[in-house]
Amino acid sequence: MDYLKEMEGKSLHDQFDMKNIKIIRSVWVPGPVIVGAGPSGLAVAACLKERGVPSMILERANCIASLWQNKTYDRLCLHLPKEFCELPLKPFPEDFPTYPTKQQFVAYLEMYAKEFGIKPQFNATVKSAEYDHNLGFWRVRTLGLKEEIEYLCQWLIVATGENAEPIVPGIEGSNDFVGTIVHTSSYKSGEVFHGKRVLVVGCGNSGMEVCLDLCNHDARPSLVVRDAVHVLPREMLGKSTFGLSMWLLKWLPIRLVDRFLLLVSRVLLGNTAHLGLTRPSLGPLQLKNKSGKTPVLDVGTLAKIRTGEIKVCTGLKRLTRNTAEFTDGSVGDFDAVILATGYKSNVPSWLKDNKLFSEKNGLPRREFPHGWKGECGLYSVGFTKRGLLGTSMDARKISEDIECSWKAEAKHLKDLYSLPTSSL
């Protein structure tokens, strides 16, 4: 008995670290574990619940949709009409505008979570997730505020998304630059840059809109345009450009739809190459399908470029103490640099699996629409490069697939326990 007590005490000591005050314990989850409480995680949890399958969401932040709440600028609105951004089973409120604001979108997600009774485990950072072939279950290790917990589950759904971590490129001379250098994930408003010369690196939707926001706060922005980019009007012929494109694709091949979009854009926006914004050789929809690169939907930035309020620069070569040097040999003085350089997946850093996800970019190896399901009960949602429409498609497929397994197991258990005692 003394030996058993000694061993029990040793076991407790091994699991309890007095310095870090962390208790490692295991928790069995009867349904799927979902990693990430953004729109993708909420969507798949709601679809599962509708089919009678319980789930648990693990979220590293202290709120749902942490990217939207904590890492987006104040003036952000949805770039697509709300009907293309709603999650499964619940449309946006009718009184919301066509392009909901950031605050309205977050409110919609909070209503969504409340309606479906979704209560994520917050402050639970997933350190690792690995399939145990001996047990036939996933082991998901999390680090919380006070303890480490290992969750065991049969199904694991990765919903951390394509935008989990900001991309911060290495720029020569950045350590010598005396001004401010921030990523757009830390940018809220141009108010703090009033009167300053600001260099925005990146000409996607975020970079364009940040430049516009800076102008509206009397800053002096310059935009680095390194690559060719498609800029389209947000609306054409009284309809959203995206909605019109989806309608045309029902009747015409993608190359003809691209020709139409470029023709109307030329009429409405003029030749963007004259503004330093050359177009890629592939059309906007073809390029999106091939590379995932989204065309920029103009909300007023081009007008500021035409008036000279926003200056377009070539690729950034290096920074010095107070200046930026560009690939065309020009030099400019700047007080701040804002990196609109996008985000990346962080899946390879914690998921111990190299079959469903690529270790190179953290995205599913198989292209849309085949990248939502892996082996051993592993799934991905929100990695389609097709925004919230792709998320909704993934969520529905995953919930249907898991429901089949869930019902089959329930039937097996029912049949097992209904057998006469003598046959067991």
UniProtKB/TrEMBL annotation:
<dbReference type="InterPro" id="IPR036188">
    <property type="entry name" value="FAD/NAD-bd_sf"/>
</dbReference>
<dbReference type="GO" id="GO:0009851">
    <property type="term" value="P:auxin biosynthetic process"/>
</dbReference>
<comment type="similarity">
    <text>Belongs to the FMO family.</text>
</comment>
<keyword id="KW-0560">Oxidoreductase</keyword>
<protein>
    <recommendedName>
        <fullName>Flavin-containing monooxygenase</fullName>
        <ecNumber>1.-.-.-</ecNumber>
    </recommendedName>
</protein>
<keyword id="KW-0285">Flavoprotein</keyword>
<dbReference type="GO" id="GO:0050660">
    <property type="term" value="F:flavin adenine dinucleotide binding"/>
</dbReference>
<dbReference type="InterPro" id="IPR050982">
    <property type="entry name" value="Auxin_biosynth/cation_transpt"/>
</dbReference>
<dbReference type="GO" id="GO:0050661">
    <property type="term" value="F:NADP binding"/>
</dbReference>
<keyword id="KW-0521">NADP</keyword>
<keyword id="KW-0503">Monooxygenase</keyword>
<keyword id="KW-0670">Pyruvate</keyword>
<keyword id="KW-0274">FAD</keyword>
<dbReference type="GO" id="GO:0103075">
    <property type="term" value="F:indole-3-pyruvate monooxygenase activity"/>
</dbReference>
<dbReference type="InterPro" id="IPR020946">
    <property type="entry name" value="Flavin_mOase-like"/>
</dbReference>
<dbReference type="GO" id="GO:0004499">
    <property type="term" value="F:N,N-dimethylaniline monooxygenase activity"/>
</dbReference>
<dbReference type="Pfam" id="PF00743">
    <property type="entry name" value="FMO-like"/>
</dbReference>
